[in-house]
Amino acid sequence: MMRAVVTTGTASSAGFPPGTAGKTGTAEVGGGREHAWFIGYRGKVAFAVLVKNGGSGAQAAVPIASRFLRAL
């Protein structure tokens, strides 16, 4: 399931390196605000990205995670 998120799901347009798996999410915190998150792994590296008041995980957190992994 986590692999499908980056190959055909909500994070598929980010261009993650091969072998990446993860899950997007949005945390509703009230007042019309939402925190965006993406948690995942590639090989032995596990990571989490949280963007406070960022909106959806796919729009705010996924691009940051993708840039991070491509920079390794």
From TrEMBL:
Coiled coil: none
GO BP annotation list: cell wall organization
Any one Gene Ontology molecular-function term assigned to this protein's record: penicillin binding
Top-rank taxon: Bacteria
GO cellular-component term (any): plasma membrane
Domain Penicillin-binding protein transpeptidase: 1-69
InterPro entries from the UniProt entry: Beta-lactam/transpept, Beta-lactam/transpept-like, PCN-bd_Tpept
Region (Disordered): 1-28
Protein name: Penicillin-binding protein transpeptidase domain-containing protein
Naturally occurring in which organism (per UniProt): Streptosporangium minutum
